[in-house]
Design brief:
The structure holds two protein chains of two kinds. By secondary structure, chain A is mainly α. Chain A contains 15 helices and four strands. Chain A is globular, with a radius of gyration of 25 Å. The mean pLDDT of chain A is 82. Chain B is an all-alpha fold. Chain B is built from 15 helices and two strands. The longest helix of chain B is centred in the middle third of the chain and has 37 residues. The chains are: A mainly alpha, B mainly alpha.
Chain lengths: 354, 346
């Protein structure tokens, strides 16, 4: 397994290099003036001043020089400007703040949403999938099949808009946004009574013992959670089911039955652990896929996460900001993919020994 | 003792292999590909899928007959009945800028002027017009993107598999890099970067979907070629001294390409979905272009009054769902046919 993990780790710098080159290549579509937002806050209107900035930051230099400066920054008068490895992604024109600050403000909200979207899918989805396999062609099985075909055909934004129409406009059950006004006042008051332990709102609310705020946050998150995860539900149940069905046909399951084990033990102790291998890979990919999914979901529900920020920046053609988000997402995903692959090797001896 | 004349017929074989007429199509495609094709037409779900797809093809072809363009030079511009922002209900009169009456209108509708069959959206864009002409947009984007991604995928995948070694390794790492960024975010950025350069049209989004959409095909075709490379008939061709390029183009690729081709053509649904998502987010086409995502995005400003203006999301949404579902139903059948565990169970 060590060789496998080492080989996998060696891939990380390759991917890091590739992703930065890819994003840098997209930056090259911008004019040098637009690219100067990587280093300076306010782009001057005056031609001479613009030229001075272009010269100063080397935006007219050969590509590889620019790439290097983009990576490690550029020192002007003893002050480092830019440099993505120091976390300086440039300045967001549309949000009027550094891109990194924007990410720092928005990412906890997205993470909060993602956790609540993923955890129930994994826990309940596996259970449902096992049930569907054990009772093949039964009710859960058929329902999952129909749901997955209808579900995958429903575009996220159509589904989201319909949810809004029914549960918000018609029934007034679940509002869009992040928090109600009163809760906002409590959470972000200057009195300091509300402690931000994790900056994940729901968890902070629980840790502060404010169930009312937890409930308010949940009310705002329920529709985005469902919109984000309805396709995952379908895929999860189906994959668990087919993996489980395959495992139940294995000879060691027959052996377990033949030696007189109870059916419950056969399923829970012999079949299910082995059927989980492809499911765990899928779980990893689902989490990764959600990072893309939040772009649309957060936009529809006006939920202040990184997806919504990226979409609104893209709409206003604020490319520096969007590329900053892409870079951030790329880094997260490289790590996430690594974790999934290593986890896979830990679980599946066939990969470990290969 | 009567002499047996060799007739070329083997009675033993005749007993084990049922006599089956091999049609021209099967002969042309080969047994494996033929099985895939017929497998697609077996289940009621996939037949329903084909019916849905056929229905949309019909709408796309007949668009000028269903609702003739107001400006024949630019039929994809949705005609506007005025400029006020508030949507107007279904069946309200079309006062300004109405299209010419098609021949079917009077006998069916019993009036001699257009009405907004499905209402108007924000800015008085006619929803019905957007849906009908948007069908053409959907097919156009879908076909362009699928063809381009398929071609790129096949070229990259076969080069990778054919040369193997370091080339293969480098190409596959490039594929990994392209797969690292979340698809919709990557496409969103590229489209946003391209829009100011090449202008608001279908192309920024199409190019973005192509650039980040070919990797799957490259991987599949690579895998298929790697397995076909080991087949006996390739070995046989090698033994009799056929040139490498001829083996690749005449023996390996034709046998490897078909499953990917079917897979790619069924991806039109997914492509249209992603395209609609991009234009829903406000990237790509100019405002008022007949495309489903655009029509849906008009609803974003009317969320608090969607119970009144439900028709501005329900009709375009339903169209998009049915379109994608058509392709998914057939695609689902395809996955069953291609599943190696199902082989031999036709």
């Amino acid at each position: 397994m060590t060789t496998y993990i080492i080989r996998r780790l060696l891939l990380v710098p390759v991917l890091l290099f590739g992703v930065t080159v890819l994003i840098f290549a997209m930056l090259q579509f911008l004019s040098p003036v637009e690219r100067s937002a990587l280093y300076v806050r306010d782009i001057p209107k005056n031609d001479n001043a613009i030229n001075a900035i272009i010269k100063q930051y080397g935006l007219d230099q050969p590509i590889y020089v620019q790439y290097w400066r983009w990576l490690v920054g550029h020192t002007v008068n003893g002050v480092r400007k830019g440099g993505i490895i120091f976390g300086d992604f440039g300045y967001s024109r549309t949000a009027s703040q550094p891109v990194v600050d924007l990410i720092r403000n928005r990412f906890p909200n997205t993470l909060d949403l993602t956790i609540w979207a993923v955890a129930p899918v994994i826990l309940v989805g596996i259970w449902l999938g096992v049930q569907a396999a054990v009772h093949q062609n039964g009710f859960i099985d058929q329902a999952a099949r129909i749901f997955s075909i209808v579900g995958t055909s429903f575009p996220t934004f159509v589904f989201g808009l319909l949810m809004l129409m029914i549960f918000y406009v018609s029934l007034h059950w679940f509002p869009p946004g992040r928090l109600s006004d009163w809760a906002n006042q409590v959470v972000f008051s200057t009195s300091g009574n509300f402690h931000h332990f994790t900056s994940l709102l729901t968890f902070d609310a629980l840790l502060n013992g404010r169930l009312d705020i937890f409930w308010d946050a949940m009310r705002h998150m329920l529709m985005p959670i469902l919109t984000l995860s309805y396709i995952s539900w379908a895929t999860f149940v189906r994959v668990t089911r087919s993996s489980m069905l395959e495992t139940l046909r294995m000879e060691y399951v027959t052996t377990a039955r033949a030696k007189g084990l109870r059916e419950r033990d056969v399923i829970n102790k012999h079949a299910r652990p082995n059927a989980m291998i492809p499911v765990i890979t899928l779980a990893g990919f689902q989490v990764i896929g959600l990072l893309g999914g939040v772009v649309i979901t957060e936009t529809v529900f006006n939920y202040p996460g990184i997806g919504q920020a990226a979409a609104s920046a893209a709409q206003q053609l604020d490319v520096i900001t969007v590329l900053g988000f892409a870079l951030f997402d790329g880094l997260i995903l490289i790590v996430a993919n690594l974790v999934v692959d290593v986890l896979y090797a830990v679980i599946d001896p066939r990969v470990r020994l290969a | 003792m009567a002499e047996t004349i060799p007739s070329g017929e083997n009675s033993l074989l005749r007993e084990t292999i049922a006599d089956r007429k091999i049609g021209r199509l099967e002969h042309f495609l080969g047994p494996e590909n033929y099985r895939i094709l017929t497998g697609l037409l077996k289940t009621p779900a996939s037949i329903l899928g084909f019916i849905l797809i056929g229905f949309f093809i019909l709408i796309a072809i007949l668009a000028p007959v269903i609702i003739p363009p107001v400006t024949p030079n630019d039929p994809y511009k949705i005609p506007r009945d005025g400029y006020s922002s508030e949507p107007r209900p279904m069946m309200s009169d079309w006062t300004r800028n109405a299209p010419p009456l098609p021949f079917w209108w009077k006998p069916i509708m019993k009036t001699d002027h257009w009405v907004h069959l499905l209402g108007t959206s924000q800015g008085q864009y006619d929803v019905f017009y957007g849906i009908i002409w948007g069908t053409r947009t959907a097919f156009r984007t879908g076909i362009i993107v699928v063809l381009a991604t398929f071609l790129i995928g096949v070229i990259v995948g076969s080069v990778s598999a054919y040369y193997g070694g370091a080339v293969d390794n480098i190409i596959m790492r490039i594929v990994d890099v392209f797969l690292t960024l979340p698809f919709i975010l990557a496409a969103l950025i590229l489209a946003a970067v391209l829009t100011p350069r090449i202008g608001a049209s279908l192309y920024p989004a199409i190019i973005a979907l192509i650039v980040f959409g070919w990797m799957g095909y490259a991987r599949i075709i690579r895998g298929d070629i790697l397995s076909i490379k080991e087949r006996d008939y390739v070995m046989a061709a090698r033994v009799i001294g056929v040139k490498d390029s001829r083996i690749l183009f005449r023996h390996i690729i034709p046998n490897a390409i078909f499953p990917t081709l079917v897979l790619a053509s069924l991806a039109i649904g997914d492509v249209v979905l992603s395209f609609a998502a991009l234009s829903f987010l406000g990237i790509g086409t100019a405002i008022g272009y007949a495309d489903w995502g655009q029509v849906l995005s008009f609803a974003r400003n009317w969320i608090t009054s969607l119970t009144t203006y439900w028709y501005i999301i329900v009709w375009p949404g339903l169209t998009l769902v049915l379109f994608v579902m058509g392709w998914n139903l057939v695609g689902d059948a395809l996955r069953d046919v291609l599943d190696p565990r199902m082989r031999g169970k036709t």
